[in-house]
Amino acid sequence: MRREFWLGVVVAGLGWSAQAAPDVAWEGRWSGQWQNNGEIDLTIDISGREFSVAVTGAPVSLGTTEFRPSARSGVYDGSTEGGMLDWLSLTREPGPLEGTPLIWARLDDVGGFTLYRFQLDETGQFAIRQLRLTRAAGGALIETIATGPSGPAVVDRADLVRR
Amino acid sequence: MRFVLAFLISALVSQGTSHALEIDDLHGVYLGYAIVSDNAGGKFKEREMTVEIGPYKRNGLRLRWVSVELVDGRRDKTGVTYRADELLLQPSGNDNYFVATAPNNPFQQKERERPIGGDPVRWAVLDDAGLSVFSFVILDDGRFELQRYSRLLDGEGMTLRFDRIVDGKIVREITGSARRVNQP
What we know:
Distance between the termini of chain A: 53 Å
Mean pLDDT of chain B: 83
Number of strands of chain B: 10
Mean pLDDT of chain A: 81
Number of strands of chain A: 10
Radius of gyration of chain B: 17 Å
Largest interface: A-B, 31 and 32 residues
Helix content of chain B: under 10%
Structural class of chain A: mainly beta
Strand order of the largest sheet of chain B: 1-2-3-4-5-6-7-8-9-10
Oligomer: heterodimer
Largest sheet of chain A: 10 strands, antiparallel, barrel
Shape of chain A: globular
Low-confidence stretches of chain A: 9-17, 85-93
Strand content of chain A: over 45%
Number of helices of chain B: 2
Number of helices of chain A: 2
Shape of chain B: globular
Largest sheet of chain B: 10 strands, antiparallel, barrel
Structural class of chain B: mainly beta
Distance between the termini of chain B: 31 Å
Order of helices and strands of chain B: HHEEEEEEEEEE
Helix content of chain A: 10-25%
Radius of gyration of chain A: 17 Å
Low-confidence stretches of chain B: 1-18
């Protein structure tokens, strides 16, 4: 009985730690220059196990998007109002098959994280956009990867420095 | 399982490409052969497949498929893999856009699918060339996987194309061909 109790405590503890938000070192404001699309400004706020990301500057301007832990370790559910949805000028709908973008984030195992958006339009054409953030010497690197009918391609990248 | 799902591939048919394809044109049984290429490792495998396309309710499609992964080019050897599955598609409101649906079960409460929890998002698009079927899923670690199976008309048959994209990289491709067969 005692053994089972402590086993439960350990498992619960592992579950909690696995749901941690991005490293607090990410928190704050970052800026840089896209290789092809001008300036980028990125703001990350971390509050407990939740976090929010705001990106401005072409080719993406995402407003503020909030992410909350999902039932899966290291996977976060994106906000369903404001942020990326505002950017797309879409109203709240039930799911991707009804036209609502699916927004989520994942933490990677090297201290970075990726934001995702998956969307189907009214003709069934799909668009997937990734914003991948990794730590780099002196700052960070952000890459945008687009996957569409012609396949995946890196759209742009920028070196970020903390402001 | 997800992989096989993709094998519900395409449909085909049509007596040519000069007219817009109708869903009735797709109905039939198709037998084909394909080469599977895994980009990580450069391995090749051979598959035989059967695709059956029929009507589902009004303006919908029922796809059943079987794929047999061969060993040394044969299906009577140890290690052969057999997979079979079915997908029901109903119009989304746009004539060329279909979404996956579950069979009616009056004794079961319908639950909304949750892609963030790993439920697949499946749909299909019909165009003048044929039918392309898609399956999107968020994997356990948060990466995404997209499977796409489409076909190009090729005279009396079709060319099949499949790719599996994981987190922005193509990890598997399949090319093949199939022919509609007579049903006595």
